[in-house]
Design a protein that fits this description.
Blueprint: H1 2-20, H2 38-41, H3 49-54, H4 64-69, H5 80-93, H6 97-111
Helix pairs in contact: 5-6
């Protein structure tokens, strides 16, 4: 009995891992409609500053319209990965653009061992002489 339960648990774990990492699996093109790509469901790349401004990626403190669009900036736009993260935070936590940028910034600092005030969290770090 215990053998069958462990086989079932292993099969369930395998199925969950397949579902979780389905975006990284080499799937033939004809099956792509059956297995949806997770990032294609709710994110469309915004390649220009105008597209990003139209999607709400601007505010009075981070005005890409005045700083980039009206001045004729020819660059591609904001970082795609950062834009996706900020839009996901805005959607998931129901916050505005500036709050989402701040949340992303604090997460980035925490991932690098820095507290929100900018001080390193490493006990061996020298902060005063």
């Amino acid at each position: 009995m215990l053998f069958y339960v462990s086989i079932l648990a292993f099969a369930a774990l395998f199925c969950m891992l397949l579902y979780r990492y389905r975006a990284h699996l080499p799937v033939p093109e004809r099956l792509r409609t059956i297995i949806p790509h997770p990032s294609r469901d709710n994110y469309a790349p915004l390649s220009t500053f105008a597209d990003q401004a139209a999607a709400g990626m601007t505010s009075s403190t981070f005005d890409i319209e005045a700083d980039n669009i009206f001045q004729g900036d020819v660059r591609a736009g904001l970082d795609e990965q950062g834009t996706q993260e900020v839009m996901e935070i805005m959607r998931r936590e129901n916050v505005n653009f500036d709050q989402a940028r701040l949340i992303r910034h604090h997460r980035h600092l925490a991932a690098n061992g820095i507290d929100p005030s900018g001080m390193p969290l490493d006990a061996k770090a020298v902060t005063r002489l």
